[in-house]
Amino acid sequence: MRVLLVEDDLRVAAALSKALRRRGHQVVAAMTAAEAVRADPVDLVLLDLNLPDRDGLEVCRRIRQVDEDVAIIAVSARAEEYDRVAGLRAGADDYVVKPFSMVELQARIEAVMRRTTRSTRTTSASLEVGTLRIDLDARRVWVAEREVSLARKEFDLLVALARQAGSVVPRDRLQLDVWQTTWATRHNLDVHVAALRGKLDDAGLVETVRGVGYRLRAG
Fold it and tell me: 27 forms bridges with which residues in the sheet?
């Protein structure tokens, strides 16, 4: 996999590059925002948000505008919820707070690439997961040929889960996708998940991953 590593700290960049190459990745290094936006296409961008010549969030938006499908993981010492939300809204697929271990980073890379690959395969007007079929344009849903009537937020929630079927979708990510904010109450999301489960008539289709989020069963 070809990785663009955007990091202005030479020691951090060298250590990360070595670790990534050891895991079989090709690494392209950039120390500034200008170098990052001029870089050739890659599969994944590891983007430090504290860059010397431009705010990393702006760089993230620029990269996302140029390539809708590239995977982006924002890397920053900024650990507040506001910062994480800002990174996700700027177009990042995940947000990693420094310091982190290489084991954690590799796991996040694998998860993001699974989601990105799956999303790229399902950019048509419909999604199919097992017996579940979703018509995105008509906003209609079928389970084993039985049509299911969903409210607007229930449909949006199902689509957010179906785009990453088989992977855990964090609560914050679902709240951003469905409500465009992370300030929605925990109870609000849980109520919509419960309603969705009831209408799909398969309580195990949407699985709870305690303390993290929800996962749509892939098969």
Answer: 3
